[in-house]
Write a structure and sequence with these properties.
Length: 203
């Protein structure tokens, strides 16, 4: 099996894909980097494939990997999260407009997409802190934020989900009009602060 990390070839004796990836992760860690992309025999693998139980027995001819410095990876992830926040704001505005036209189904579709993206943003922040070994609460305090933005998001998302379950357009409209604008604003400040501290190498 050929193992390439950032186009550099490594001689390995491992036979299964799982063993090769574990070895690659160790090599990258020794270099102060993390694996961010996996190609097995020319095919880019998804997260689902990378967690498959079949990896323990699966063999391949070539595994090509791309790595990145953790801080660069996290800064890029936070930048992507900020872009996603703009999309969320648009989806929530679209949902509110649909509700005003009594188009509940269309509003639900937009809100469903927004909720999924909110989950990804929360995951990005938590994962980024974990990768860099940061105390997330301390970081939020350092950028002048606190748990309020996180708590507000949790409360607002619960309100949205509850209203979606019972298909209550009035509750949806109220949450979108009175809660979500400040939530979006708070998270934009939070993400921008974390991105700045990460890209500047602050701890």
């Amino acid at each position: 099996m050929r193992l390439l990390i950032d186009e550099q070839t490594f001689d390995i004796t491992e036979r299964s894909v799982r063993e090769a990836l574990d070895r690659a992760a160790a090599i990258a860690q020794d270099q102060g980097r993390v694996i961010i992309e996996v190609h097995v025999d020319g095919t880019r693998w998804t997260d689902e494939q990378l967690t498959s139980a079949d990896m323990g027995t699966m063999e391949a001819e070539t595994i090509a990997l791309t790595s990145a410095a953790p801080r660069e990876l996290v800064a890029s992830t936070l930048s992507d999260a900020l872009s996603a926040l703009d999309r969320i704001e648009h989806l929530q505005s679209t949902a509110a407009a649909s509700l005003a036209r009594d188009e509940l189904g269309t509003a639900m579709e937009s809100l469903g997409q927004a909720l999924k993206m909110w989950t990804e943003i929360e995951r990005s922040v938590t994962l980024g802190a974990s990768i860099l070994g940061l105390d997330l609460q301390a970081e939020l305090t350092a950028i002048g934020s606190n748990t309020e933005a996180v708590e507000k998001l949790g409360q607002a998302l619960k309100s949205l989900r509850d209203a979606i379950v019972i298909r209550n357009p009035v509750a949806l409209t109220d949450t979108l009009a009175y809660e979500m604008p400040s939530v979006v604003s708070g998270w934009r400040d939070l993400l921008q602060g974390l991105e700045k501290r990460t890209s500047q190498g602050e701890r």
